[in-house]
Amino acid sequence: MKRGLMLGLILAAGAALLAQDERPLSPSGTASVQVLGQWVKPDRRVSTMTGEAYQGGKWIDITYGRPLKRGRDAFGAGPTYGKATNAGAPVWRAGANVTTRLKTEVPLVVDGKSVPAGEYSVLVELTQPAEWTLIVSSWPAQPGPHYDPANKAALWGAFGYTPDKDVARAAMKVDVLPYTVEELTWQFLNMTNDGGTIALMWDRSMGSVAFKVGG
Fold first, then answer.
1. pTM of this prediction?
2. Which of 6, 26, 103, 196 could form a disulfide with 65 if both were Cys (CB 3.0 to 4.6 A apart)?
3. H helices of the chain, where?
């Protein structure tokens, strides 16, 4: 084999390994749902399950980083419960890398509290294994991917969080799952056209809170 070809193969292999190393330990994720829309029969058939088109729907999205358990105890126990999960921040970012964000095109009602349409930071206060609190905050988020401690006007993860910008706080129902969830996951459950449940799953825990679309 010619030396030039051999060198090219070595460089290509090295580049492939480097690309693998650059893959984030916590991939980004999005949970999305549409509400207030309706299915209608269009003039021309569309490629959905029923051949109908969903019109007038409004989006609700949660964007977040997705840490993997990788054999760790995600939350700890006893007096140290949740401390390592928070990674030194006052509350949990409920994700990884960046601040978990909620973007809603419609106003929401969470535990009787109004959340106007817009963008928010979402955090979780871990008090005890069965005592979680969902926090919807008007704190803006740093763009990332790296924490800028000099930026006091925006959060990175949960670093810099203070409760003065809380829009809503809600006690979460915490269930013990019969299996472990490897990759942290936000989901919308039990959806109707005007509400449902926001759920967060990791390890053997699922914290959830119901919401409705506001007027």
1. 0.88
2. 26
3. 3-21, 83-86
